[in-house]
Records
---
Amino acid sequence: MQRPDASVVHGTPAQAKDLPSVDRLLRNPQVLASIAEHGHTLVAAQARLLLERLRQQAQAGQLDSAWLEPSALAQQLAQQVHTVLRPNMRTVYNLTGTVIHTNLGRALLADSAVQHLLAMMAAPNNLEYDLADGGRGDRDRIVEDLLCQLTGAPAATVVNNNAAAVLLTIAALAQADAAKREVIVSRGELVEIGGAFRMPDVMASAGATMVEVGTTNRTHAHDYERAINARTALVMKVHTSNYQVQGFTTAVDEATLAGICHARGVPLATDLGSGALVDLSRWGLPREPMPQEMIAAGCDVVTFSGDKLLGGPQAGLIVGSKAAVGRIRKFPMKRALRMSKLPLAALEATLRLYLRPERLTQDLPTLRLLTRSVADIEATAHALLPAMTLAVAPGYTVSVRPLLGQIGSGSLPVERMPSAGLAIHPVPAKGRGRMLDELAAALRALPQPVIGRIADDSLVLDLRCLEAPQGLIDQLPALTRLLQ
């Protein structure tokens, strides 16, 4: 709440009878200006709420008469209207050190994807209309050819996220024949991802009977061979992207497993989770398995995300054989999980970027941030240091620090990327925890909230994802006021 005019004498308690009526408040010239901008309905509703709140404060003896001055009431009402109209979803500065942050929206869309999305939203489009013959079209065709070209798969379809892709694949392939409901999976691949999405629960929800083979750390080819029988509908492999089992381990590669499955007439599906469409090692990043490798190895279905390493919108991508993808596409659940025009437009534009792989580090924000040099990040830290030091003084000191970040969203969980940023330290020896919490809260309260992390008795701002610091610098005076 804004403070009333400084010229008004404070300290005199107000009574409920001193409050103006709603009609009188709405005739205030400043409020009339607000009505002209926002309309009578919204402003009047907020005026009633404001007066009721002030009435309760007056009855409790907690209302200063200064707050009832006409200009003060108008300021409070304007602030209240502004708060109501402010969107809940807002842009933030991701200075956590996690590039693809699940809680902060994951991958950033490329400029071309944003522009294509806006164009498709602002006018009618051929979402399900065939421009060649003038008949009804299939929305999958918007991206199917691109996905097939990029992965080498004969067919492709898409749904609204990768969890849905896995669920739909299992349901479609395990419910085609009532006598074949068993889905075989290694015990070492019974993953749980964010939001308590567990593979055993997915199997049950899809109407499949899960058959576990092997052990947590070792699964052999003969484990699958012994488990496959007349009731087997599908063999499932799951890439353990959000954790890693090390030491005495054994797993069966997709090519070997595909041979076992196909010799027995059973389809093989593999879920890559955050699957990458390019070899990340060419830029010095840890390598992730790619859908095209899984297709070449003989997998009948491969599922992966659109909004992680691929760098696009939330989507579940399904590629594979024409027979398997055809069954998935025709399964009744597919319509409930289909993508809308908004993410489809963004996905198409993102996939087209992969047709020019040499430009990906320029055109794709996710890859651009992941491949950003430490020297460039350090330069950003030194550019931000003076303004941040001034903003948080005298209660805190600031220093440039080398850091280790991560890719995020379950991708390569044990790998760390060299980075750099600012470490903000409370000056007093006591009360550091409270001061760090207050600083973190103040950063989140900025017009564009700043999200960092608390570690080693400091608030750490990893600057890998801050390419242009001026916007943050411009709002640091507000941080100073919040800390006072």
Note: The domain at 93-102+371-483 is CATH 3.90.1150.180 (Aspartate Aminotransferase, domain 1).
---
Amino acid sequence: MHWAFWVFLAFGVLAVFNLLLLVGMIFLEKKKPQTIIAWLTILTFLPGIGFIFYVMLGSGLSHRVRRMIKKKAISDRDVLKNIRGLKTFSEVSGIRSLAKDGDLLRLCMDMGGYPCLGNDIKLFCHGLEKIAILKQDLLAAKKTINMEYYIFANDKVGKEIMQILIHKAKQGVKVKLIYDSVGSKNSSKRFFRKLEKAGGEVAEFFPPFLHIRMINLKLNYRNHRKIVVIDGKIAYTGGINIRDDHMGMKRKLSPWRDASVRIEGGGAYPLQNIFLDDWRYAKNDKTPVENYIKEYFPMPEVKGDATVQVITSGPDGKLQKIKEVFIKMIIGAKKRVYLQTPYFVPDDAFISALTIAKKSGVDVRIMLPGKPDKKTVYMSTLSYAREMAEIGIKIYFYNGFMHAKTLLVDDNKLSVGSCNLDNRSFGLNFECTAIIYSEEANKQYLEYFEEDIAESVLADENYFKKAPIITKMGQAFFRLFAPLL
């Protein structure tokens, strides 16, 4: 009787905690119904453990963090106001030069993506290609280097880049580096302190509680961006981190296919703006915005004919901006929609957009990794891939790990960024993507995609039907948690 009382009491306490969490999810955090149902499933079948999971992964941002993010949004508007004053960024000329995509341009502008004209674009499909050119640009830096990476590893490639940053800092170049606390958890403070001793500055995004690595109450909200801006004129973004396996050095996931873009011209401005926003937040930097303008935003030069709009998303906004822009691009497509992503866990709106495009006669293709890095997410990905195949969308599994996050539409639009096609990237992580309006860049990436097809397996409806029953059960089970993946 004694033990039964304590068991009853324990379940009663857990029931009260679950009820409080449910009230918080509905009335305070205002989570989506499908997310609430997914968490209730975990809380019900994993009592106690589910509560710990929720505190670590599901709880919203604290009042203090939200207040800081609000200040960050204000500084973003201040910087953007100065950028818009430049003639190179004329709203009218931007829309006139791309009249057929005027509606997409306007949507991106409303989402904060100001059109930047006159850019030279270089695309990279492999990490070593990007790193080789990046090293050259870093060594040639004259005034400023700003870097922001989800993963900055203390390995071969990480040490090489760090040595260059230290060298430039000693030369007097102003070097700033942001790394994500969780993504770079295996890199010690000592590794980054070397740059600080050389005169550079370092910021850790969402550091752990009391700086104890194992206790991070913001585990679910990560800065997943990959940004480099050099002298305010050259910028990089995409999916490639500073880590050996992203260079294809990890045999288990090789060949590693990724994507990054180098932007020279006015398109460096919005990426500079994003970095400085994140920097001001992470360092609690109260430097007046206007103090940054002259040093970090030099008058841009026309370097090419590509127009660029950079879109960001994250928990600091009410809208899932990147997802909304992607949906607009997909339903507006006339000829083709080619997607590459490591994780494919879309919501109903995204599925509807792909379905509408396919039913409208658009050639829709999705390329996924043939070698997964996260088994649970991959099981859910396979479930959605099967659904897409059933409506006639071509699904390809790349013979390796597909880490690229790209969307190619028709003959003149291409998105390259850090955002995966899942709920985590669309709503929880801080992400960014570059929308590139360029027939030349589109054609080049189309060639890359077609080369990838030759290294991939086409999975039709029968491909999924042949899967073992245990695999199908796993896909159905893990799909239940899709809103949390």
Note: The chain has 18 helices and 19 strands.
---
Amino acid sequence: MLSAFSNSLKIPELRQRIFFTFALVFVSRIVATIPLPMVDSIALQTAIDQMRTTMGGGFLDLYNLFSGGALERCAVGALGIMPYISASIILQLLTAVVPQLERLAREGDVGREKISQYTRYLTLVLCVVQGYFFAVSLENPRALLGLDVTLVTQPGVPFYLLAILSMTTATMLLMWLGEQITEGGIGNGISIIITVSILGSLPAALTATIGMFRPIDGIAQFTVFHLVGLVLMFFLVVAGTIAVTQAQRKIPVQYAKRVVGRKVYGGQSTYMPLRVNYAGVMPIIFAQAILMFPPRLLAMMPFEFAKTLGANLDYGTTWYNAIYALMIFFFSYFWVATQFNPIQIADDLKKYGGYVPGIRPGRPTAEFLDRTMTRITFSGAVFLTIIAVIPMLMWQRFSIPFIVASFFGGTSLLIIVGVLLDSMRQIESHLLMRNYDGFLKKGKLTSRR
């Protein structure tokens, strides 16, 4: 594997792509460090500490993790790349239900470019809306967050305009950097920026891990046995995530022979890969986005019943975990229902002379694919639920710092594993085209005489 990394720098085109990716990633990290004007950084840190004490800090730490620490520093990149992700998800779901968007998606590169343009416009709108609410929260922390601090040094309309313009520009810049990485770098640029933002919290996570084993008043809360258990658990979770992410159900497909003139086409056997985790990380993102708002809205109501209900639905509670797991199951099947079209796949197979052995072409094939996808989606949903709940259980039940627990599962681990696997596949394809070995050397057959 080390030789594969060294060989990557020997290929001029691949070397240029790797350095180009690192350069743009460095620029994206600068956006997460430039502070927002007119905000008192000392008072902000005090407010964050109060929120962690009163509200537990679950959602705060989660959003701060995806912004690469920009939220905690109140940087211009505090919104991160999440508005673009939200816009992409909205357009992708609308494509399955709006006929005009569905026709655009089938028009090839021209249609996809048009949908990408709509995604950019929607990102701009979401940035303005989220930036406005972020500025309102900073200017009125006492009314909205219950914090008795003053965060903005010069409140008023100029602060609103400056905050919205700064954060919107930063998010649009991150979006542009991600698109440039996708075109001229290695891997999916948006996913790489999110991954680097998550990994930006790794030094703080290591510091918090070391602090877990320091004795307080002569007594250490965690021992060396806990450390060994954490290391083993980390490797098991990562190995399981990689295995399920790459798991496929291979449906055999046979193509009938066709004679066109003097040439014979078809007749070969292949397979159709159906991914076990077809929805990827999307069900977890949907569930987190929906459950983020009800506790906050209920807490601001003047009714005692609403406040109690909001507290029971807060991050990490038993009710939250139960609803969270059910929503992950629901969105796993919802994503498959909107994105996987067995009827179209069956029609395409029939059109090109393909069929599944033992299954009649047409509607029976569509029913077989739908039934198979429903069964394997259950396994993927169970896996996503377990991975999503692990960090909350470690943080809530075992008092492990959230920044440490977040690397043992959840959205962050799924994104990191998926992005690294995709980037490694792209690098390996460049190596194999130049007759280099990939990351794993293939065994050589030897014969004896």
Note: The radius of gyration is 25 Å.
